[in-house]
Amino acid sequence: MLEIKNITVRYKNSDKPAVENFSLNIKQGEICCLVGESGSGKTSVIRAVLGNLPGQGTVTQGDILFEGQSLLDNTGNDWRRIRGTEISMIFQDSGAMMNPVRTIGSQFVEYIREHGAYTRREAWKKGVQMLKNVRLPDGEHIMNRYPFQLSGGMKQRVGIAFAMFFRPKLLLADEPTSALDVTTQAQIVGEMMKLREDYGTGIIMITHNLALAAYMSDRILIMKDGRVTDSGNRDHILHHSQADYTKKLLAAVPPAGGSYHV
Question: Nearest 5°: phi and psi at 69?
Fold first, then answer.
């Protein structure tokens, strides 16, 4: 479904590449987690896939294929067609992506109608139901609120509702549960796993939480300084990796009951 072929990402005012020689294949229904410290290039990878690199960032080498077509050749109209429907993204701070002077409902209805043939009334009802699906029970109330009237966790769940609404073929998630309490994290992870199980959605997720990565993913990629330093399934990363950086990451996980278990 998605093939990232040896890409390098550079930003205009930086001499050093943010990502270098990165490759990854994602099949339908596969979940891959990118793990690493801040500045390791994780977010640059998924923003390159979405065609949304900030700061005049560009892919200077390699290619990104989605269902056999190069995303690097996409026009503005091509991106409008697939963003939010076939490829969707949950941002680390969804609240920052919302218009602060418009209600959640007006933005959600516009988003739904932009990508689907719905009346305003239909879009409103579907928006309310989707908010309930991400554990915001009073959907009508939320739809009538402005972003500044919601907590950080509530705004994050609204962003997740937007991203998951059209059951995308590929979901990109940049630390989607970092602003949520542990109980809500578990609920949202459950919703993401259900999206994979029910619709075959492939997921690339960025996280600092190795336990979460091990629980969710079919594959884990460890990144440092723009490069992949280790990769493999849960068992390899947690129990058999010989990579020094992977060992350091594991050693940094606070032990539970005197020893580390995932």
Answer: -110, 140
